């Protein structure tokens, strides 16, 4: 049994002493107290006092000479700072997996924070042969992503194009009246969706009225206060695959690159015919971001009878549509609405998930699948919670009027590796999503575990092997046996 140290370099975000202020509290609704993340006890600490991947170590608890399949092993992680002192508080974000490269086998490990500088990772042994432990420090507890997310909502900004008869204007838009918008002398055009109540703001154009807004697109990234050179740190299987199942931990594992679900009796769909007969007579409405568009693309590539229609829409934000008239399948993918980082597209093509769902009759031939998180990592948690609440209301109403509708939610996946998105931010949103939909008879396709323990390099767009396994799990719920 080999124990391997794979502590990735911590992504430490430094703040200038005078570049920003820490905002130490965030408001969470009572049901979301599970989202609170322990913060370091002091507000300013030196970089060499933050958790270091070079001095942090881990050991197998009570090692034995042999193990059997089904055993649980525990690994104790001792966090230390850059000066080799043991940490006395928690809040570091670790990701743990057990893997065997030769067998293309891996499983997710659950990490528990003991809030005293130690953590335990537990793994279930699920295949015969060797297994190695990998623990990665994704963020030290001193990393200030939480504060940054809450107080700086326009680090990603958007552009709106307004059109008149022979004149057009481009202005900055965003999901909140952010500083960047408020600074503008004529703030703002406000767009409130009549049904979902979602708000969107654009800087008021100089000549054209607010109603002249036609196109939406990605503006840019602005992270002016990040990564300063100053050394100061502002801290900051026998079950049928049906809706309503809890996600166990681990939710499954890879062996020979195939995911075995521990949640329910999932199947593999190796041929186009098997996929097509599973999807026969289904109308699948997919709403989300590019990580769900990968499912659409995978299905299109794998099932030759599925033909894509040319709707002359954006390849990036859709809507996209494919049909298989022999098997009576209709597949639609569209972006989840604003905010979405995309090339310039007609804003009328961007529909909120809740309003799409409200316009759907549903029923036994209807499958709704959505994912929403990756374009929300730059906004305060509240923005995301509000959006989820609207979607939840719409899904609840759909399941009430048409209980046979199958609703699936693709969880967040790992692989974000920059300051606009990080696995820690994704994780927080993903926890919120799971809490929000816990009581509803919907399916959560847990791709977090599937991506975090796979051997392929971190990528916000998971590799083909992972997508195949994600889609197989999705199909297992569409036609359960
Ligand atoms: C740790 O960092 C602080 C602040 O930069 C510095 O003053 C101190 O000398 C460092 N300690 C060691 C042992 O390197
Ligand atoms: C930390 O807490 C855990 C769980 O309560 C305990 O088992 C462990 O001994 C503690 N370690 C230290 C260094 O205090």
Instruction: Return the CATH topology of the largest domain.
Output: Rossmann fold
The helix/strand class is: alpha+beta
- Total strands: 24
Number of helices: 9
What do you see in this structure?
The protein has nine helices and 24 strands. α4 (290-302) packs across α9 (464-478) and α6 packs parallel to α7 (423-436). Strands 1, 3, 4, 5, 6, 7, 8, 15 and 16 form a nine-stranded mixed beta sheet that branches. It has a seven-stranded mixed beta sheet with strand order 18-19-20-17-22-23-24, covered by helices on one side. By secondary structure, it is an alpha+beta fold. The protein has helices spanning 145-151, 179-182, 272-279, 290-302, 353-358, 381-401, 423-436, 447-452, 464-478, and strands spanning 2-3, 44-46, 57-60, 72-78, 93-100, 105-113, 118-124, 132-139, 156-163, 168-174, 187-192, 199-203, 213-221, 232-234, 252-255, 258-261, 283-288, 307-308, 320-324, 329-335, 345-346, 366-370, 406-410, 443-445. The protein has three domains: 5-139, Immunoglobulins (Immunoglobulin-like, Sandwich), CATH 2.60.40.10; 153-221, no CATH class; 264-478, Rossmann fold. The radius of gyration is 23 Å and the shape is globular. One 2-acetamido-2-deoxy-beta-D-glucopyranose is lined by residues 114, 116, 118. InterPro entries: Ig-like_fold (IPR013783), Ig_E-set (IPR014756), NXPE4_C (IPR057106), NXPH/NXPE (IPR026845).
């Amino acid at each position: 049994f080999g124990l391997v140290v794979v502590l990735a370099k911590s992504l430490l975000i430094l703040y200038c002493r005078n570049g920003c202020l820490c905002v130490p509290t965030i408001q969470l609704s009572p049901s979301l107290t599970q989202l609170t993340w322990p913060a370091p006890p002091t507000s300013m600490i030196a970089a060499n006092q933050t958790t270091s991947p070079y001095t942090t170590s881990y050991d197998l608890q009570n090692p034995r000479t042999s193990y059997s399949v089904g055993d649980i092993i525990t690994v104790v992680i001792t966090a230390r700072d850059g000066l080799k002192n043991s940490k006395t508080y928690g809040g570091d974000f670790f990701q743990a997996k057990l893997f065997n490269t030769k067998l293309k086998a891996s499983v997710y490990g659950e990490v528990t924070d003991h809030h005293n500088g130690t953590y335990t990772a537990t793994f279930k042994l699920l295949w015969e042969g060797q297994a190695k432990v990998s623990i990665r420090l994704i963020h030290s507890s001193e990393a200030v992503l939480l504060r940054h997310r809450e107080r700086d909502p326009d680090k990603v900004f958007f552009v709106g194009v307004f059109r008149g008869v022979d004149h057009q204007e481009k202005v900055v838009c965003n999901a909140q009246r952010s500083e960047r918008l408020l600074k503008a002398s004529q703030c703002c055009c406000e767009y409130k969706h009549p049904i979902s109540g979602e708000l969107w703001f654009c800087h008021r154009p100089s000549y054209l009225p607010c109603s002249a807004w036609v196109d939406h697109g990605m503006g840019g990234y602005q992270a002016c206060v990040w990564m300063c050179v100053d050394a100061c740190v502002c801290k900051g299987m026998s079950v049928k695959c049906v809706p309503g199942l809890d996600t166990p931990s681990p939710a499954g594992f890879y062996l020979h690159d195939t995911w075995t679900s521990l949640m329910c009796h999932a199947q593999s769909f190796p041929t186009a015919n098997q996929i097509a007969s599973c999807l026969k007579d289904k109308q699948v409405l997919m709403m989300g971001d590019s990580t769900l568009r990968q499912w659409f693309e995978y299905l299109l590539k794998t099932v030759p009878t599925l033909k894509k229609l040319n709707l002359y829409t954006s390849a990036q934000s859709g809507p996209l549509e494919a049909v298989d008239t022999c098997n009576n399948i209709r597949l639609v993918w569209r972006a989840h609405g604003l905010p979405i980082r995309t090339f310039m597209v007609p804003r009328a093509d961007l529909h909120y998930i809740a309003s799409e769902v409200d316009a759907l009759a549903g029923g036994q031939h209807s499958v709704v699948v959505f994912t929403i998180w990756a374009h929300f990592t730059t906004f305060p948690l509240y923005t995301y919670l509000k959006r989820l609440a609207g979607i939840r209301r719409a899904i609840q109403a759909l399941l009430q009027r048409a209980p046979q509708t199958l609703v699936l939610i693709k969880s967040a996946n790992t692989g974000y590796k920059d300051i606009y998105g990080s696995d820690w931010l994704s994780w927080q949103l993903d926890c919120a999503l799971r809490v929000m939909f816990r009581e509803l008879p919907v399916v959560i396709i847990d791709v977090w575990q599937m991506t975090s323990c796979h051997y392929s390099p971190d990528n916000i767009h998971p590799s083909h092997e992972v997508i195949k396994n994600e889609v197989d799990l999705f199909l297992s719920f569409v036609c359960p046996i």
